Fold each of these.
Amino acid sequence: MNWQLWSKQIDAIVRLEIRRYWLGRRWIGIYLLILAPIALLTLRAMFAPARALNVSVTNLNLTYAVVFQTFLLRLSVFFSCMQIFARMLRGEILEKTLHYYLLTPVRREVLAIGKYVAGLVAVIALFAICIVTTYLLLFLPSPGGVDFLIHGAGIPHLARYLIIAMLACVGYGAVFLLVGLYFKNPVGPALAISAWESFNFVLPSALQKISVIHYLNALCPVPLPKSPFAVLTDPTPAFISIPSLLLFTASVLIMVSMKIRRTEVTYSAD
């Protein structure tokens, strides 16, 4: 195994793909998902009366937990990963450009991993900016929020939100990279996966663990109140949830490598 050659090839693919991502039209929807909460919190900071901004730290923490777990995690990160990773290889086939890569002396699994890493770098960078900005816009206008950031657990909480978003991109990115190899249109599978993740809390305990969101929720610094319909399940400790999620991701990427080896690029059929 020529690991040195493969690492150089992955690095070259990552650099090329990142330049394509930032300028691609497929990112318009992602930019809107990222800018929406930033715009709303900016308007709140600029125009809300001082009384409305003087909120307790407990309420601020709960508010951001709701925004993060419902909008950012389940909507923005999830569908951004679908948009990027599901079309990463399938889009090349539909646009009849994948053969340019296949004509180069690069193993197919190296190509897939290179594209995956490029997508991760771009998506994680964007959502890191979004999370830091929204977190500061929510806490800084409040006197209690400023004290929480400087002297309290504000920065550690922010670091945990960043780690959770990064792990979400890692897990969902691998899943949708595999989905793109099996389905021409990823919308149907994406909606099915979204339903599984969204209603995970009503499933039996054993089935709850067959999801990305179960392990991400266990890492959140501020847990949300349980639904009355939720099946109570003990949260998985971080020292188990993080390795489990990474092991799951590695397994999916192995499936991607096995699938892309057998994939025949027949443009007439697509």
Note: The radius of gyration is 20 Å.
Amino acid sequence: MAAPKIFVLDIETAPIEAWTWGIWDQNIGIDQIKTDWSILAYCAKELGDSKIIYADTGGKGKKQVRNDKRLLQDIWNLLDSADIIVAQNGARFDLPRINSRLIANGYGPYSPVRVIDTLAVSRRTFGFTSNKLAWVAKYTTDQRKSEHKKFPGFELWKECLNDNPEAWREMEKYNKQDVIATLELYKKQRPWISNHPNLSAYAEERQGCPKCASPRVQARGYAVTQSGKYQRFQCSDCGAWSRGKQNLLTPASRRSKLV
């Protein structure tokens, strides 16, 4: 069986335009929305492939910047081909936003895909001062979240909406660096992710690490549960721990245990 296709994905969206009478603590009704959000750009990179995929809505004039229909087919195709999607805040933002634009434009569902959200992993497993990509990547990898110094803050989105070519170049750099930083963070987090999809299931012919599929696993002690004893393993490449599925206690021994 072929190795799973794992993509790191990140999207950038256009803001909602709305009519409002103030700037502080506003509740905006749907009848105050002038223009809804849309996808401005997306970037993806397959694990193990040096190619970085990027596309945006620029270059067709200001009136076409919010038309994300030309991005949707490629995004659908990517998701349909993937086994696993990795994204920072992907479970709560990127995938639901993408799904909203797909169904609104008549697309059916892509094939089932597992989502690994690096933000959720940080919240669930670690206790960093901040779980933002910029902060966690700073302390765990040699990558940094991209900064857009030429167009600081909201200025970058404003100028992309004006279809400024220089701003689009900055957006591409920003989007790509976020994907690279997320990829490196995922690699660091992977051996810590308790519910990570079992990659060794894709390599039927050999035993391998469930987290990274490396065959370089060593037997190290035993995992003991309420009703069984299992061989424990550690990956020599990523460091992840796993255990065998065979209960080493005999049936007679299992029947004699109290729980």
Note: The two ends are 40 Å apart (CA to CA).
